[in-house]
Amino acid sequence: MNAASDDPRIQLARRTVGAVTAIADPALPPHVLHLVDSQGNTYFAKQHGRPTRYAQEVRAYTTWAHHLHGHAPELVARQDSTRTLLLTAVHGQGGQSLPPGSPEEEQAHHDAGLVLQSLHRGTQGHSAGALGTELATRLRNWIAKAEQAGLLSRAEPRLLARIADELAATPMDSAVCHLDYQPRNWITGDEFWVIDMEHMRRDARVRDFARLEFRRWQAAPHLRNAFFHGYGAHPTATEQRLLEQFGAIEAATALVRGHEQDDPVLIAHGRTVLSRLG
Q1: Would you place residue 128 in the very low, low, confident or very high pLDDT band (cuts 50, 70, 90)?
Q2: Can you give the pTM of this predicted structure?
Q3: Which of 3, 8, 160, 247 could tie 22 with a disulfide, CB 3.0–4.6 Å?
Q4: Which pLDDT belongs to residue 2?
Q5: Beta-sheet strands, E only, within the chain
Q6: What CATH architecture does domain 94-276 belong to?
């Protein structure tokens, strides 16, 4: 595969590891290149369009990734001026492509729980009211966007606003969270890998379960059990209630993003989660 020599991803790789060749990889998004150097070492070169996402991913790799104990790519080099990262390539099967109901899928969820526990344990913090207030504000912002787009019934804003009030009044434990922790960001095989850490930041620890809770586990509770067996503990009743409240953020976000992207599947997901909250 040919790639333009003035591509910032190619330039960063050549300055860092020497001559490289781009490998055709249709599974990758357009902003990521798969590269190989003259020694056969492989890399992913990624260029961010948004400065905030770039800054968050740099911080994830330079400050927190070591808590994943080798289950993440390594940051080889970066160029701040072009928002470009060069990462070691990790190889295996994407978690989203594992056969449903297979032992491999169940093992992936177990391993995902084990690895996430390491991140949370290494970065855990004490309960703080400010976090609940911040999350409530975030939810209220999504409610406003959904109302402006005409995506909510007359009663639904009141329901979501009540949940926002509950979040604001709830103390919650914090940890550094991946915040997009789901099979599309897992690579499985001989090892288990976590990728795409551009959303990583300190947040409510339980919130890191939300994508799985609302997008995977409802139809496959055995995967939920496998995950928390790896994690070391199931949520308490209080944590489970908090996780259900995070469903309000999941629902409102899915509705707005689905509307913006003209994605009927995402909109339908938002409606399904919202129906659980009443």
Answers
A1: low
A2: 0.91
A3: 3
A4: 47
A5: 20-23, 32-37, 42-47, 75-79, 84-88, 93-94, 125-128, 172-177, 186-188, 193-194, 201-204
A6: Alpha-Beta Complex (3.90)
